[in-house]
Amino acid sequence: MMSQLKIDYPETLPDALQQTREQFEQEAKMAMAVKLFEMKRISSGLAAQLAGINRVNFLFNLHRYHVAMIDLTEEEVISDLENA
Q1: Which PANTHER family does the UniProt entry name for this protein (predicted)?
Q2: CB neighbours of 53 closer than 8 A, spacing ≥ 6?
């Protein structure tokens, strides 16, 4: 079951961004999903579901928001390599 979030925005905002209403609303959903993923609050799968796209497309579009697909510290990388 899906819940719905309603956000009020000026009617002129999509035009100011040179987007249709649908394009603006899709971008807003994607931006929210990316930010929650970046903050490590949700998984990439859940973020993709929130954005309304598949996980692969979500991951491939992260670069548009300057967010890394994998955000490991140097210690985590070294540990992963040692345990491989």
Answers
A1: UPF0175 PROTEIN SSL1255
A2: 30, 61
Amino acid at 7: I
Residue 10: phi and psi, rounded to 5, are -60, 140
Q: Which pairs count as long-range contacts for 4-12, CB under 8 Å and 24+ apart, including other chains?
A: none
How far apart are the C-alpha atoms of 24 and 18, rounded to whole Å? 9
Cα angle 80, 43, 7 (rounded to 5 degrees) comes to: 150
- Residue linked to tokens 């994607």: 30
What residues in the chain have per-residue pLDDT under 50? Answer: none
pTM for the model: 0.83
3-state helix, strand, coil in the chain (%, to 5): 60, 0, 40
Q: Give the per-residue pLDDT at 2.
A: 85
pLDDT at 36: 98
Looking at residue 75, its pLDDT comes to 87
